[in-house]
Known about the structure:
Blueprint: H1 6-13, H2 16-19, H3 32-44, E1 50-53, H4 60-80, E2 81-84, H5 92-104, E3 115-119, H6 127-139, E4 144-150, H7 158-161, E5 165-168, H8 174-188, H9 194-204, H10 208-222, H11 227-234, H12 239-250, H13 254-266, H14 271-284, H15 292-310, H16 316-338
Parallel strand pairs: 1-4, 1-5, 2-3, 3-4
Helix pairs in contact: 3-4, 5-6, 8-9, 9-10, 9-11, 10-11, 12-13, 12-14, 12-16, 13-16, 14-15, 15-16
The structure holds adenosine-5'-triphosphate and magnesium ion.
Magnesium ion (MG) is lined by residues 60-61, 120, 149.
Amino acid sequence: MFTFSSANVAITNLPWLQKYRPATFDDIVGNEPSINVLKSVSKNGNIPNFLLSGPPGTGKTSSIVCLANELYGKELAKKAILELNASDERSVGVIRDKVKAFAQTKVTLPLGLQKFVILDEVDSMVDPAQKALRAIMEQYSNTTRFALACNNEDKIDEAIMSRITKLSFTLLSQEEIAKRLLHIINQENINYTPEGLQAIIFTADGDMRQAINNLQSTYSGFGMINEDNVYKVCDVPDPKYIMEMLKRCIRYEVKNVFNAVNKLYGEGYAALDIIQIMMRLMKSASEKDIEEAYYHDYLMEIAKAELVIKSGTDSELQLIGLVASLCDIAKSISRKKNY
Ligand SMILES: Nc1ncnc2c1ncn2[C@@H]1O[C@H](COP(=O)(O)OP(=O)(O)OP(=O)(O)O)[C@@H](O)[C@H]1O
Ligand SMILES: [Mg+2]
């Protein structure tokens, strides 16, 4: 007979981000060139100092944790690894106290293995903290290795950059996200439609953290992954509707387009939400959706509007201005075509 023990409850209730956090390199999808470097380090044990840089939710911290698992195992990791990932652990004080103290500690390790410091969000560390870190990296280079992670390497001290092996991470492809989501869907025995899965992938936009979160939220909210449920949970406008809006611009149906903008605004979506979806749709649009003649000018116009809104002016007027320009562009392109 099945008994409902507290262990069962704990496992079922675990957020999927935690439950499906990669434990080995085999669990990680995408970014093969960087993962292959880490795999080879895990085999020969010769760790350089690393900087993993790239967008959120692409596996930077996960792959460093996999490397640490392979190299150290659970027991050794307790004394050989210092992991700082809370955002209040970025101060110069923490670097001078915690990191330096760890670097100075004597730990007996197998031959060829050094102590290992994992430091996330290095790009949010102030300059003096980065300078202090660089000094410690240099002073203790014989006994301690560092794996740093960041989203924006432009904010990393030049002197740190010149002392590390850089591993770049990029947004994950649709296929890579699908592969991991299908693994979770099978493990959890979830009901889904292919369109629902596609909707999760679309809303995640290359970020696996977002994809897994959206999968779990949709499943806990509705028990079924289909398109409608995903867009309700993710609170983004349905891309099919936005694509139809773009096509209406091309057909110069000005009044219909303005009505569509009003409708979306009435539903509470911000201009930026809508414009970002337009941008993503344009980037993945086929010739069947958006003819090539319109592609370049439309992309430019949408990108300009996104820039203006991101600089602080998010209003319905911006969106109306954008669709009016798109209609105008369509009109002049169709004039040229008929000339
Ligand atoms: N490439 C990947 N393969 C499999 N799972 C992944 C991958 N990337 C991210 N994940 C999942 O998303 C979660 C977050 O990933 P991770 O912490 O590695 O992202 P990150 O790149 O370090 O992001 P950030 O820049 O925000 O720190 C992980 O727990 C894991 O479940
Ligand atoms: Mg991280």
